[in-house]
Amino acid sequence: MAIIQKSKLNDMTSADMEAELQKVRSEYRAEMAAFGSSGKPKNPGRYKELRRMVARLITKMAQKNVSKKK
Known about the structure:
Shape: elongated
Helix content: over 70%
Number of helices: 3
Distance between the termini: 21 Å
Low-confidence stretches: none
Largest sheet: none
């Protein structure tokens, strides 16, 4: 499960954040592929939370002046 708490996000190093961002993005892509193939998401809340987690990670990385990869 890729969702982490905001408080734990503050304690992460830049390398940990980049690794977590890659995991979350790959999970997000998998959810989008499942949504595209069936037309209805199995868990819409999971999709929404993954989007938010990507945004949180990118924001925290920008605050810590870490270079982000797309």
